[in-house]
From TrEMBL:
Coiled coil: none
Lineage of the species this protein comes from: Bacteria, Pseudomonadati, Pseudomonadota, Alphaproteobacteria, Hyphomicrobiales
Primary site of residence: membrane
InterPro entries registered for this protein in UniProt: MFS, MFS_dom, MFS_trans_sf
Organism: Devosia yakushimensis
The name this protein goes by in its record: MFS transporter
Pfam family of the protein (one): MFS_1
Amino acid sequence: MADPQSSGYRSLMALPAPRWLAAASLPADFADWLDYAAVVALLVFVWGEGPFVMALFALALTLPYVTAGPLLSMVVDRSPLGRVLFLSNLGRGVVTLALLFAPNTAIVLILVFVRGCVDSAFNPARQAAIQATTPPEMLSAANGLHQAINQTSKIAGPALGGLLLAVMPAQGVFGINAVLSLVAAAIVLRLNLPARPPSEPQGDFRSELLAGAAEFRRSRLLLAALVFSAIAYFAFFLYDTLIALLADEFGYGPTAFGLSIAASGAGGLFAAMLAGRVTAKNPIGGMITGAFVAGIIACLIAAAAITDLKPPVLLFFLTMAIAAGSTTFMLVPYRTIIQAEAPPDRIARVFAAGEAVTMAVMLSAPFIGSVIATAYGTGMAFLAGGVVLLVLASAALIVQRSGAIR
C-alpha cells in the first residue's frame, strides 16, 4: 500500500471522474440513511413491532446480497458502469416511492428486499467505478472519502428524519427519499468513466459466477480480510437491529433514536477521514483496532442495560459515535484491499462474492440476537456481540504477529 500522505483528498477531488462519482454518492447515501430511520421508526415506534420483526427486517436488508448480488455482478462486469449506476439509482427511487403506500409490515419487508436486490448491483458498480477512476496510490483516500460521504449522510439523514417524524407520518419520508435517488441518477449522467478491459470468459455459467470467489483463493490477504469481515459482521448483527429497542428501553423516543444514528454518523465520518490516511500501510491492523474498540463499546452498553442503568441521552449519543467509528476502521481497509487486489475485469464479482459470504455468515445473527434478547434481555445480545468481537481481534492480532498475514 502507498504512503497515504502522498495521496490526499484534495488531489483526489481535483480529478473530474472521482469528483462526479462522489457527487452522485451524496444523494444516494443520504436517501439510504433517511430511509433507514423512517423504516425502523415505522416498525418499532408506530406499529409496535418487536425483536422477531426486526430480525426479519435485517434479513430483508441482507438476503439480496446473498441471492441476487452474485448473479447481478456478472452483468455489472460486462456492462457500461455508467448505465448500471444510472439504472440502479432509478430503480431504488421507484421502489422507495412504493414504500409510501405500504399498508403493513409484510409489504414493507418485501419492498425492502426488492430494493436490496437493486442495491446489490449498485454497490459493486460503485466499487468498480472507484477502481476504474482512481490512481492506485489514491485508493485508500477514495474509500475513506466515500465512507465519509456515507457517514455524513448518516448524520444529516437520520437527524432530518427524526425532525420530520415529529411533523409527518413515517411513510411521508419515503417520497423525499425517492426524489433523492432520482437526483443521484441524474448526476451519474455527468460521469465520464474510462473504458474497462473486456472481461475474459471463464467457461460455463458456474465458472463465470464463481470467478470472483476464485480471487479469494488466489490472495491470502483478500481471504484474511474476508474472513475477518464476515465474523465481525456476524457479531455486529447480534445486536445492531436491537438498537431501537434498547433506545426504547432507555426511555428515548423516535426523535432521539434518529439523532443517535446521526451521532453514529459523526463518529463514522471522523473515523473515515482518519482511516483513509492511516490504514493504507497496514489495513489488517486497522481492522483489528476497530474490532477491539467495537467489542469494548458493546460490552459497556450491555453492562448498562443488564444493570438497568439508564444513561443520559448525550452519553448514549457519544457511545454510538465511538461504536460507528470503530466499525468504519474495519470497512475502509477491507474495500481498499479488494480494489488493490482484484482484477478490473472481475472486481464486481469479487466485491459481490465477498458481500455474499459476509451476509450468508451473518444471516442467522439477528435471529440469534432476538432469541437472546427475548430470553435474557436486550443487554445480553450486546454482550454476546462484544465478546465475539474481542475474541476475533485477539485471534487476528496473534495471526498477524506470526507473519501469516500482512
